[in-house]
Design the sequence.
C-alpha cells in the first residue's frame, strides 16, 4: 500500500469542498491541498439542486451568509477567472404567504433584512398576483420580494471552482472514496482503495454522509439524509418570473431561460436514494396546481432526485470536531447559496485557525450540547 502526504485533505468535491479548497489557495499559506471525492464531477447534491439563492431570511446569520455569497456570485466570473460566467440570473425571489402567521413571519423578517441593506419589500396579495399572473388567488395573503435574489448554474460554479483550484495547485481526485480516517501520532490517515493519504488537517465536506466517517472515530454528529425531488416541465411561454417560494406549500419554482419550469417539492421521506419515488408526481401535482393554476396544462418532461443533509435545527454545522484539526462543513440544505461564504470561513479556520468568526461561532458542531435551538422563520421545507 502506497502513501501520499498533504497538509490539508478535503473529503468531498461538492460546492462546499471545492469552495473551501479554492479559498484556501487565496490565503497563500503555501499549504498543500488535496480534495478527493468518491463520485464523478458534480455527482452529489451540488449537481442536482434547484440553483437558487436568496437573501430573504429571518435570522441575522442566514442573511449574512447569503449576502456575502450573493456578492460573490455577482463577481464570480472575475474572481475565479472564468470568462464563461456562471449563468447568473437575478430576476428576484417572491416569497409567498398563504396565512396570517406566515405573513407575520415575513413582516418581522423584512425588518431584520433591512438592517443589512437587503433591498426587500412587502407586497399585498394583489401586487403578488400582478407580478406573477399565473398564481392562484386562493388563501394568498401577501409576500416579500427582493430583486437581487436569483439563481446561477451549479455546474458552471463547480467547473469554475475546480479549474481555479487546480490552477493554484490543488490536487483534486474523483473516483476516490475514503473508507475510514484514523489519527495516529497526531497525523490523520485516510484509507482509500490501495493507498493511504496522510494529512495534518482534514476537512469533511461529505454533507449527509459525514457521520459515516465520524462515527468510527467516536464523534457523533446529528446529521441525517434529506432526499428531495424535482419536477421539470417541457419548455413553455414565460409564466413564472421571479423565482417563487411558498412557505406553506413547501415548493420553490424557477422558470429557466430555455422555458422549462423547475419545481422543487419538499416531501418528508427517509433514505438516501436519488431515484424519484413512485407516486411522487401524483402527490405533488395538486400542490403545484393549487399554488400556480396557470401551469396546470404544462406537460411534465421528467423528474429527478437528489440527497441533501438535515440537522436538528436545519442550520449548517461548521467547525472543528472534538478531534483537534478534524473539521466538518455540513450544509443542512441551502448549501449552494451559502457556499462562497462558508468556503471562505472554513478556509480561514482550517488554514489559519480563525475561530472568532461570529457566524461560525453560532454554527459549531458543539452547539447541540447546549440545548439552544436556532430557529429560522423563513424555511421552505418540511
Ligand atoms: C433537489 C435539491 C434541490 C436543492 N435546491 C437548492 C437551492 O435551490 N439552493 C441551495 O442553496 N441549495 C439547494 N439544495 C441543497 C444543496 O444542493 C446542498 O446543500 C449542497 O449542494 C451541499 O453541498 P456539499 O458540497 O456539502 O455536498 P455534495 O454536493 O453532496 O458533495 C458531497 C460530496 O462528498 C462525496 N463523498 C461522500 N462520502 C465520501 C467518501 N467517503 N469519500 C469521498 N467522497 C465522499 C460525494 O460523492 C459528494 O460529491 C438542493 C438540494 C437538492 C437535493
Sequence:
Amino acid at each position: 500500500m502506497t502513501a501520499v502526504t498533504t497538509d490539508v485533505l478535503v473529503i468531498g468535491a461538492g460546492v462546499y469542498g471545492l469552495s473551501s479548497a479554492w479559498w484556501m489557495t487565496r490565503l497563500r499559506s503555501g499549504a498543500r491541498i488535496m480534495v478527493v471525492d468518491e463520485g464523478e464531477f458534480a455527482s452529489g447534491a451540488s449537481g442536482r439542486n434547484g440553483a437558487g439563492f436568496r437573501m430573504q431570511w429571518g435570522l441575522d446569520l442566514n442573511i449574512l451568509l447569503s449576502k456575502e455569497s450573493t456578492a460573490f456570485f455577482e463577481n464570480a466570473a472575475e474572481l475565479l477567472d472564468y470568462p464563461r460566467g456562471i449563468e447568473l440570473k437575478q430576476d428576484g425571489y417572491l416569497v409567498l404567504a398563504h396565512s396570517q402567521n406566515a405573513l407575520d413571519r415575513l413582516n418581522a423578517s423584512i425588518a431584520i433584512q433591512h438592517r443589512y441593506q437587503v433591498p426587500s419589500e412587502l407586497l399585498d396579495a394583489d401586487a403578488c398576483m400582478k407580478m406573477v399572473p399565473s398564481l392562484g388567488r386562493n388563501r394568498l395573503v401577501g409576500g416579500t420580494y427582493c430583486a437581487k435574489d436569483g439563481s446561477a448554474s451549479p455546474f458552471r460554479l463547480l467547473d469554475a471552482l475546480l479549474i481555479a483550484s487546480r490552477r493554484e495547485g490543488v490536487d483534486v481526485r474523483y473516483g476516490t472514496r475514503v473508507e475510514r480516517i484514523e489519527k495516529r501520532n497526531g497525523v490523520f490517515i485516510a484509507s482509500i482503495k490501495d493507498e493511504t493519504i496522510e494529512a495534518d488537517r482534514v476537512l469533511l465536506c461529505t454533507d449527509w454522509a459525514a457521520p459515516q466517517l465520524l462515527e468510527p472515530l467516536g464523534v457523533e454528529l446529528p446529521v441525517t439524509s434529506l432526499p428531495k425531488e424535482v419536477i421539470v416541465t417541457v419548455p413553455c411561454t414565460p409564466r413564472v418570473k421571479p423565482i417563487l417560494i411558498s412557505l406553506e406549500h413547501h415548493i420553490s419554482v424557477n422558470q429557466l431561460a430555455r422555458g422549462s419550469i423547475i419545481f422543487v417539492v419538499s416531501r418528508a421521506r427517509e433514505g438516501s436514494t436519488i431515484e424519484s419515488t413512485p407516486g411522487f408526481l401524483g402527490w405533488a401535482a395538486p400542490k403545484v396546481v393549487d399554488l400556480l393554476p396557470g401551469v396546470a396544462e404544462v406537460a411534465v418532461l421528467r423528474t429527478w432526485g437528489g440527497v441533501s443533509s438535515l440537522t436538528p435545527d436545519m442550520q449548517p454545522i461548521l467547525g472543528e470536531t472534538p478531534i483537534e484539526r478534524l473539521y466538518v462543513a455540513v450544509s443542512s440544505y441551502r448549501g449552494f447559496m451559502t457556499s462562497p461564504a462558508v468556503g471562505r470561513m472554513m478556509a480561514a479556520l482550517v488554514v489559519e485557525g480563525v475561530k472568532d468568526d461570529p457566524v461560525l461561532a453560532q454554527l459549531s458542531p458543539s452547539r447541540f450540547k447546549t440545548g439552544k435551538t436556532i430557529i429560522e422563520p423563513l424555511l421552505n421545507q418540511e
Q: What stands out?
A: The chain has a mean pLDDT of 95. The longest helix spans residues 335-352.
